[in-house]
Structures are given as structure tokens and as C-alpha cells.
Amino acid sequence: MRMVDMIQKKKHGEKLNKDEIDFIVRGYTNGEIPDYQMSAFLMAVCFQGMSKEETSNLTIAFVNSGDQVDLSKIKGIKVDKHSTGGVGDKISLIVIPLVASVGIPVAKMSGRGLGHTGGTIDKLEAIKGFKTELSGEEFITNVNEHKMAIVGQSENLTPADKKTYALRDVTATVDSIPLIASSIMSKKIASGADAIVLDVKVGSGAFMKSVEQAKELAKTMVDIGEALNRKTVAVITNMDQPLGHEVGNANEIREAIEVLSGKGSQDEATVALTIASYMTMLGGAFEDFNTAYSELSEIIKSGKAIEKLKEMIRIQGGDDTVVDNPSKLPNAKYHIEVKATESGYINAINAESIGISAMLLGAGRKTKSDVIDYAAGITINKKIGDKVDIDETLCILHTNLKENKQAELTAKGAFFISETKPEPVKHIYEIIA
Ligand code: URA
Fold first, then answer.
1. What is the pLDDT averaged over residues 53-81?
2. What is the pLDDT of residues 218-244, one digit of tens each?
3. In this predicted model, which residue has the larger pLDDT, 3 or 264?
4. If you average pLDDT over residues 85-113, what whole number do you get?
5. What percentage of the chain carries pLDDT values higher than 70?
6. 3-49 and 331-418, same CATH topology
7. Who contacts 49 (Cβ-Cβ below 8 Å, separation ≥6)?
8. Most buried among 133, 233, 328, 347, using CB within 10 Å?
9. Which 3 state secondary structure label does DSSP give 185?
10. Is the CB of 59 inside a 6 Å radius of any atom of ligand 1?
11. Which residues contact 402 (CB under 8 A, 6 or more apart)?
């Protein structure tokens, strides 16, 4: 087989069989196929797409490129969730203790942030002492005894995806449905959970810009999950503005504490409760959505969920006193208010620009080797539909950097003000199961 023939076939929109896809993935992972040929192939996939069977074969080839986690020593149906990536997305921090509160085991593997999107592992490391690397034994013991554990992804999990994703990032080949679906689902399958809830983001801060595209991505991933015997549900959620009011690592921990204490913002709580409801239903705790949603809301009100968050921090070596005293989390030196230059209603907030501004303030990495400032971030004071007067604060930038003009301009440019009030924002668009 020759890679040039595979590129030619895909360029003409022909289907590749399992052996051909295995050849490409194996060859690229072990270095026999160079970056320039893989780039040409990925671009051909972006234009010509892939059939259901090709996407499924690509997913399996990614899974087989590395280790697979064996969670069989954990009792019960192990549930996992994954977000396609957003800004201010602290849903994992909320749903892990919430779902574990009803006794459903959550064995969570999470990533770090890159570019404008944040990562749960970075956020948790804003808590002093929190260990995001656990041995396989510690991970399994914690899930069995406490119903929850979270770790970063191990080095040899889907190495083919890791290498391909890095190439896609620099060759404008990220936003392809079969490529995103196989990348995400391969990691979830290799991580070993029995049931998966996917949070498919749509809007200005997401890879999918239209609900139609998001539905197609969701359907593709659910089909892959079902074909590989994983119960899979996708929830399509709004990413047309940052989720909640806080962006940045320590900031997002503070807001997750608020939601779990019953005091968080409406969008955040609605999305978290919806995702958690499907996780608990797949785990077998509840029969129907309405019961799950109201029982989980009660668990938050009762104080049980926030106690579970303390327990999660404690068992992973972190300082759990931050829950009662969030001011112990890292705080920035400078707080810059970004003001409105006209009056009206907030019509749109470009979530990607807010994510980029937060990254420029030190909350994220421009390159993989950058060191994160956990205190850096943005508080969003005005959200879509809010009335705003000239000179009122739109958002506050938190940073330890003296030079922050570019971040300020980027954040300011993210807000669009109109004379008329826009339609109310929908938090959840659709469920694909
Ligand atoms: N997240 C992933 O893990 N892979 C993609 O391709 C896009 C988002």
C-alpha cells in the first residue's frame, strides 16, 4: 500500500476500507508516513468527509494505537462525560461530585486547556495540593470507595490521536465532523467507561458554529459509541457566550463551588443538572429525566453535593478548606474593569474572544510549554439580554501581568450592544440518544 494512493482515493471522494485506514494510522504513528502526506490526507477528509463505517474504523484504529484502561475492578456502571470544548466550561467540576452523590461511579479522565478553551485538570490544579496524577490502583480504589476520581490522560492513551490532533491544530483541519468524532470517541473508548454523556457545544466559542452541524457531530459520536457497546447520549448546549460568569482556573473553581452550594448562575446550573441527569440515568439511578433532574436539584439544596466536592478534593490530596473559604484560592494583583462605550442591551458575546483574552492574561497556554497563572481570568458582569448603561462594567480582567492592553482590547471587542433586547438564550438545544 502507498500513502499517495490513499490521499488520491480520498481526494476523489472514494471510501477507504479498514485495512487502508489501519495502514494510515499505524504508519503515521510509527513515523513511516510523514506529516506532509498526513496533512494532505486530513485536508482531503475535510473536503470529502467520511462514511459512518470509515469514521468507526478510524476511531478503532486510534484506540488500538495505545493502551486501554481496564476499569473492570470498579463495581457498577462506570459513567464518563466529555465536552467538545468551550469557554468558562466548568461542568465537569460540578457533575463529578453531584453524580457521585447518588452512588453512581464516575471514573473521569480529563485534559488540559489549549488555545482559547480551558481544561479541567488545569482548573483543579489551582487548588493547593490537588493531585491529578494517580496510580491505576489509587484511581480504582477512589472510585470504589468514594464513587469518584479524576486524572489527566496517560501518555500512551490513543497516541495516534495525540499526534494527529497536534497536526490538525496547525493545518486548519480541526473542524471536520469525522475527525472530531473519532478523536473524542477514541479517547472515551480507551478510557474504559461503560456509559458516556457528550456535551456538544455550539456557537461562537465552539468548533461547531450551527445547531445543524452540532447535531451531525452528536449523531456521529452516539453511533460510534453504540456500535462499540457504550451507552452514549449527547446533549447539544449553547456556547454563544461563556458559560456562567467566570473564566479562568481559580475563578472557575469558585463558580463551581457556588453552583454546588445552590447559588450559581442559571445557565451553568441548567447545563450541569441536564448532563448529570443523563449520567445518573445511564448509571441506573433514575428511570426518567424529570425525576433525575429534581432529585439532583434537591441534593444540591440539601448541601450533600458541596460536601461531596470537599471529599473529592480531600481524597486527591487538595486543601478542602477552599470550599468554605474560596478567597484562599489564588488571587490576581490587578483587576481591570472593561466598560461599555454605549448604552443598550448585550446582543452577543464572542466566547472565543473572551477565551483568547483570558489566555493573554495568563489563564491559558499559547504553546504546550507555557506555564499557567491560576489566578488569571475574567469575570463576566453582563450577559446576553442584560441592559447596560454607558460606562457600566462589562467584565473584569484579573491578571498578574502589568502589560495587558491586548487582552483588554480583545475582551472589549467581544461584546456587541444593540438598541433592542435580543431573544432569550436557549441553554439546551437538543438531546441525541
Ligand atoms: N476535542 C478533541 O479531543 N478532539 C477534537 O478533534 C476536537 C475537540
1. 94
2. 999 999 999 999 999 999 999 999 999
3. 3
4. 92
5. 99
6. no
7. 176, 177, 178
8. 233
9. helix
10. no
11. 334
Q: Which residue has the cell 479498514?
A: 18
Give the pLDDT score at 174. Answer: 86
**CA triplet 348, 90, 289: central angle to 5 degrees?**
90
This prediction has a pTM of: 0.92
Mutate to test the pocket of ligand 1, among 89, 202, 207, 220 (most ligand atoms within 8 A of CB): 207
Mutate to test the pocket of ligand 1, among 42, 109, 174, 185 (most ligand atoms within 8 A of CB): 174
- Candidate CATH numbers 3.90.230.10, 3.50.50.60, 3.30.70.2740, 3.90.1170.30; the one for domain 331-418: 3.90.1170.30
The band of 114, judged by pLDDT with boundaries at 50, 70 and 90, is low
Question: Tens of pLDDT along 338-389?
Answer: 999 999 999 999 999 999 999 999 999 877 678 899 999 999 999 999 999 9
Residue 127 confidence (pLDDT) = 97
Is the predicted pLDDT of residue 134 greater than 80, yes or no? Answer: yes
From residue 232, alpha-carbon distances to 87, 88, 236, 406 in Å are: 24, 24, 13, 41
Q: For this structure, is 82 an active site residue?
A: yes
Taking CA atoms, 336 is separated from 357, 364, 391, in Å, by 12, 18, 13
Give distance in angstroms: CA of 48 to centre of ligand 1. 19
Edge-to-edge, what's the strand order for the sheet holding 415-418?
Answer: 387-388, 344-349, 415-418
The reply to whether 183 belongs to the active site is yes
Does the beta carbon of 66 sit less than 6 angstroms from any atom of ligand 1? no
In 3D, which of 309, 187, 179 has the Cα closest to residue 255?
309
| 219 catalytically annotated | no
Q: Where are the domains of the chain?
A: 3-49, 79-322, 331-418
- The CATH number for 79-322, chosen from 3.90.1170.20, 3.20.20.20, 3.40.1030.10, 3.40.50.1110, is 3.40.1030.10
CB distance 183 to ligand 1 below 6 Å: yes
Class of the domain covering 3-49 = mainly alpha
C-beta 119 within 6 A of ligand 1: no
